[in-house]
Specification:
A hairpin with a 5-residue loop joins β1 (5-9) and β2. This protein has 3 helices and 4 strands. The chain has a two-stranded antiparallel ribbon with strand order 1-2. By secondary structure, it is α+β, with helices and mostly antiparallel strands. The two termini are 22 Å apart.
């Protein structure tokens, strides 16, 4: 599973937070039009089989600012998680710091 944040312990019990970026656009991405009542967590469960990955859809589509609801008729990009391995996503996040 791709984590949204990674907490790493430093000296004196202080923690750093790394926010992972979403996979870049690829030809393996899917695009859908949101239906009435669609929510980010339900879409993540439908396409990734894990509702905790809602943040990938939110970030890829600039949604989720205070709500899980998706406006009906909005085109939604479903990033392919098969394009990059978790290690590659982590390396990309380190480069983007």
């Amino acid at each position: 599973m791709i984590e949204r944040y990674k907490y790493t312990e430093r000296e004196n019990r202080r923690y750093n937070t790394t926010r992972y970026s979403i996979p870049p656009k690829s030809s393996a991405d899917k695009y859908i039009f949101a239906r009435e009542g669609d929510r980010l967590d339900n879409l993540a469960n439908e396409f990734y089989e894990d509702p905790r990955l809602w943040w990938i859809l939110a970030e890829a589509n600039e949604l989720g600012k205070g709500s899980m609801k998706v406006p009906p008729g909005k085109q939604i990009r479903i990033p392919s998680l098969q394009v990059l391995s978790v290690d590659e996503v982590m390396k990309q996040a380190e480069r983007n710091k």
